[in-house]
Amino acid sequence: MNVEELKKKLIAAARVHPPDDRVPYAFEQRVTALLAGRGEANRWVFLTRGLWRAAISCVAVAVICGAVAFFTPATRDTGNDLSQDFENTLLASVDQGEATP
Amino acid sequence: MERSEAELIAAVLNGDSTSFEPLVKKYSPRVFATARRYARRDSEVEDIAQEVWLKAFDKLKSFRGEAPFEHWLMRMTVRTCYDFLRGHQRNRESSFSDMSEDESDWLEKFAADPGSAAEDAAAAKTLIGRVMEKLSPEARLVIQLLEIEDRSVKEIAELTGWSVPLVKVRAFRARGEMRKILARMAREKYL
Q: In a mutagenesis test of the A interface, which of B43, B73, B110 is the best target, namely the one with the most A β-carbons within 10 Å?
């Protein structure tokens, strides 16, 4: 069998049978609906991505603050604890009032 | 009043996705006809066409309007079809043993007298379909564009994004590949 001739014949067969250009019913409407749906989905993706970024930033800030608090050398202990300092500050005006004649 | 293509594209780029619908309606027959050259099942053809339009929508910003929209779209269609071929190479290794009676008759007629086998016969159409399915994706694309659609090497380079020398090399290999497949088909038929 002459392969080259067969090739020519089959190529000619493909040429005389052009493909069908029929479009399924309402195809363009389906594509438009899909695009609109994708736009909606994209908005949610955008929001979710933003929230994730914010969460990551918050965790990063917390880690940095923790590291700073952990590695910063502690100030010399004045002997008073925090509750005592708080009370002194809160009652400072009262103490001053009592001290003045 | 009917809006021009440029107006529709500008509207889509400004966020009005409904203006895309007339473009889909106008060019879908060409997209479907092209997709049917590479895929057989209706569902596959529709998937390709849908992917083409989604890509076109996403990449519309890259359309500069220097060439007609149709050319830009057809480039996208051919490339999507090529991606489809690369992802669906299922029948390449199958034999020709399941040839129908009509196909066998057509081949026999051709073997006896090449002139008597009509190219417009349905059997010839299904046979070329079988042969094309056995080609590699590159070879199939090149044979389709160069031999069947009769496009120039330069046009194929533009459509596929390949360089002109690459198209020539692939065309040479594709013809060789096709000859081998046809020889195998003839051998299997007469063994």
A: B110
Whole-angstrom Cα distance, residue B17 to residue A28? 12
Q: What is the pLDDT of residues A53-63, one digit of tens each?
A: 999 999 999 99
Topology of domain B93-191, CATH: Arc Repressor Mutant, subunit A (1.10.10)
Indicate the pTM of the whole model: 0.74
Q: Which ipTM score applies to this complex?
A: 0.84
Overall CATH class of domain B1-88: mainly alpha
B19 → chain A, closest CA residue: A32
DSSP secondary structure string for all residues of A7-46: HHHHHHHHHHSPPP----TTHHHHHHHHHHHHHHHHHHHH
Which residue in B has a C-alpha nearest to residue A39's C-alpha? B17
Q: Are A24 and B25 in contact (CB under 8 A)?
A: no
The count of other CB atoms within 10 Å of the CB of residue B22 is 15
d(CA A9, CA B107): 11
User: Cβ of A1 and B128 within 8 Å?
Assistant: no
Residues of chain A contacting B110 with CB distance shorter than 8 Å: 1, 6, 9
Q: Which spans in chain B are helix H?
A: 5-13, 20-38, 42-58, 69-87, 101-112, 122-134, 137-142, 153-160, 164-190
Residue ranges of domains in chain B: 1-88, 93-191
Task: Give the residue, B17 or B50, on which the prediction is more confident.
Answer: B50
Nearest-CA residue of chain A relative to B25? A28
Query: What does the alpha-carbon distance between residue B66 and residue B167 come to, in Å, rounded to a whole number?
Result: 24
